[in-house]
Amino acid sequence: MNCTKAIILVAGYGTRRLPITKSIEKCMLPVLNRPVVDYIVQDCIAAGIKDFYFVVNEGSRQLPSYYAQDPELQNYLKRNNKDQYLELITPPSYCSFHYVQQPMQGKYGTSVAVGLCRKITDALEADERILVIGGDQFMMNADGFSETKYFMDIAANTPADSAMLTIEVPRSEVSKYGIVATQAHHDYEVFERIIEKPSIEEAPSNLNNGSFFMFNKEFFEFLKRDIERERNGEYFITDVLNQYVQARNEIAVIRNRGEYLDCGSVEGWLHANIRIATLAGIQSKI
User: Fold this and answer.
1) In this structure, what DSSP letter does residue 68 have?
2) Given a cut of 80, is residue 124 above it in pLDDT?
3) pTM for this predicted structure
4) Domain total for the chain?
């Protein structure tokens, strides 16, 4: 499967994390010594993703600065025999990082954010796929295996046009999430629909939408048409999923391998720090 590009959605004010997000971009909040978004990027790099397109707020400076080369810092580390830090601050030379600014006025929502990357999606080849990932969460595998690679490998072994990662949650908590209804199709599951915050009795599964997708070029035609419609409120990419499958396209549903760490809330961010600290052997020293 030809998939070397990723769109990562990191725009927004991060209101759930105010007041700190007044001065720090929400995707740059630290989990130990790394910003949240870098866990996503590093996992993608391990899976062979080379080109990253970040949808950022207008005037975003912190994220572009993080992935830019810093010759002065690199020279300082070399002069002071701190070469072990060089690989931490130097992205692989074969990776490229691009920034698409999202206006904070007018239409809004996940579909609108992805739609800003139209030049990239219009240029996709017929056999090419692209990842679309929410930027305030990441997956952790205790053995260090890339969740992105796992996801892409499973997707490549199905004939489905696109794929999505789902997170298994306790049945008692389904009313907190967008729950995915699936159908068995030969030896894999396919997306049927999403039900937002269903009751335990109404929930068709315990699979939470992981905001981690892989789409073919055709999907973005549906997204484009959805954005062109005038309506009140947000434009959700989940609405486009429903339209896409109603037109007889398949989305393979892949269940998570690793642990889902949602950093969008204070509680989730603290939990992520504790889990990563535990893996790093730091927690016992605190």
Assistant:
1) S
2) yes
3) 0.95
4) 1
